[in-house]
Amino acid sequence: MSDTPRSAPVTFTEFDSLSTEAWQERIRRDLKGADPASLQWHTPDGLVIEPFYHREALAALGQQPTPQVRHTHNTAPNAWRNVPTLRVATTDDGHAAVDFAAKALQSGADGIHFDLDAPERFDVGYLAANLPLSTAYLGFTVCRQPEEFTTRLLEATGGTQLQGFLRYAPGAFSLPDDYAMQVHGLRRCALLTRHLPNFYTLALNGSFFNNRGASATQELACILGLAVAYLENFISDDLDVDAATVASAMHVHVSIGPSYFMEIAKLRALRRLWATLLHAYGLPTEVAAALRIHAATSSWTQTTLDPYTNLLRVTTEAMSAVLGGADSISVTPHDSLYAAPNDFSARIARNVPIILREEAHLDRVADPAAGSYFIETLTDQLAQEAWAMFQETEAKGGFLQSRGRIMEDIRKLALDKFHRIATGEQVIVGTNRFQNPNEQFDFDPKKLLRSRHFDTTRAAYPSEVLRLATAMHFVRKELQKKSAAVVLLGPDTIQFVHDLYTNLLPPDERPSSNDLPPVGTLSVLFSSPDAATLMYANEPQFREFAQFIMKLDEENAPELELEAPLLLTADLATMQDAVKHFGFREFTVHGHTTEDVLARLQGR
């Protein structure tokens, strides 16, 4: 109403402006003289996070000339696409996945990411006939033959202006023998889709590193290293492929973990670093601003124990992706580690980004994190550390030349994370803290441990495999079946188990030194109806043991893959004799037997 009095603008002129030093002094007073630095915390990257941030920290960063937000593809200031991932198995032609995708697109999804185990079997004709190609955002991950798949896709879709991406992910990160052919094939993919400005065929797969325990700094540095490898190897004057063509075909895949502010800063730092890198190649800002980032919730943090906690994890991870500026987002269903795709978990996962858009209205602001003293400072720290790591790699011959060292550095960091999880320093709710002692599994632990799809690279895996093996032992003990089982826990689990055991002991009973088996020793859990024993053996011992139990002919049988978790069962007498014959040794911690500790884990 016109006669309603208006309040005066809110100002803070009545308050004195306080400096950083004034705040530090107040903190010292509240801490009764203690150093405010005692409130700092350190990230796995080695970054120091302060207890508070002042506008002086923001002013010290100076002007940032690089783009911080996504290249808007919609009318909303902060538009992103909700793109669930569907895995298509080796024996599947994809019809069921396409039908599932059609329903998802009618229920809030903006696109679909098909992860193809056998791209040559996927029926692209059925996809073209049943999905709205002109409006849906479609992604495809292939493990082989990217050029052949792209050719078939373009033939099936005719002249449709496809939107989406192709991600070539051949599996274990190694340089294939036919690398020159792969360069040729991926370059051909970029040329074949040059007329499709919104379909990107050269993926920089940062998710691979993140999901194996890499820090945010390592993930960013690896992305930059891959980008340079693409630019250096794919440019060809003969084929009229220049730096702009290669850069325009590239897109980035990242995984988003639970460290909320760190992940926001990671995506913002990525855009800054991308602009810096392309500037070095003489490319205009417009090319850098067009970068597409696909963010997926991290498999590294997913758990099979107390799996509904995954719903909470993926919600914060999706929110980080949105606020950080991802162009498309895949939210993993909470039961994806052990359950077949199903309508319930897929719908819940699909609704997470929908709620962030339709109810939280996070699409209404272009860059919600802009101006935050903390996030801007963290963005700058990440960008500088990742750039320094990237430059170090380039000085040692580049990403492809240094890939072995890079993966070893990531492995060392992952082992450190395993140690912190085992000691409780890093908490995984429902797994190493606040466990549900009455949890009833929605899966068969025996089948899960035997499944080749059970992800052993995750942070929770060592805890899970021990808990699952423990559950199997107590079930077997209750049923009193005269059989026995051996579960291969893996080469890195000994240290984890030692740390976990030690942490379970009263402080005055904890050993003062680590009395561990030799490095590289395989840890196994031997379970009979009467007892469970943690043991260890070297690789030749376990290989001979496994071949004996599985009755393999060493000359005629294929090479036995000793990948954890490997479950072997036999009658009790045979198993006992074999374990003794092949020289397995019992592993105890300060005199405590496996049975004692397993009982503690189960709260018995």
UniProtKB/TrEMBL annotation:
Coiled-coil boundaries: none
Top-level division of the source organism's lineage: Bacteria
UniProt protein name: Methylmalonyl-CoA mutase alpha/beta chain catalytic domain-containing protein
InterPro entries: Cbl-dep_enz_cat, MeMalonylCoA_mutase_a/b_cat
Positions of the Methylmalonyl-CoA mutase alpha/beta chain catalytic domain: 190-446
PANTHER family on file: METHYLMALONYL-COA MUTASE, LARGE SUBUNIT, METHYLMALONYL-COA MUTASE, MITOCHONDRIAL-RELATED
Organism of derivation: Solirubrum puertoriconensis
One Gene Ontology molecular-function label: intramolecular transferase activity
